[in-house]
# Entry
Amino acid sequence: MSARNPGTVLDLKKICKVRVNPQSVLKRAQRIQGQKTPKKQWQTAWLLNAVTCIDLTTLAGDDTPSNVHRLSMKAIQPVRYDLLKKIDMHDKGITTAAVCVYPSRVADAVKSLKAANSNLPVASGT
# Structure
């Protein structure tokens, strides 16, 4: 099964009208390349912050309640506890932003999250 968004139409006319300033792009790319990479502690903080912006999603139309349960548990604890403990982030509530499932599996996700005492949002599309 392939993922698709029937609500979004690819408008090639708009895309063809897009103009790029090559000099600006090259200048920006050179500036980015010249920047130092973040130190380990900052890089870790950025990566953990990125995790909190992710929706864990399943797009399998034949998902089972157990698959949705596993996904929900992974959303609650997306980073291994021992790794979070090493950097003293084990008690900071690092979760993903939401769990995203097909409409037919919303109840399963909500049930799993409530059972785990989590108020993580459940998203769904049609």
Remarks:
- The two ends are 15 Å apart (CA to CA).
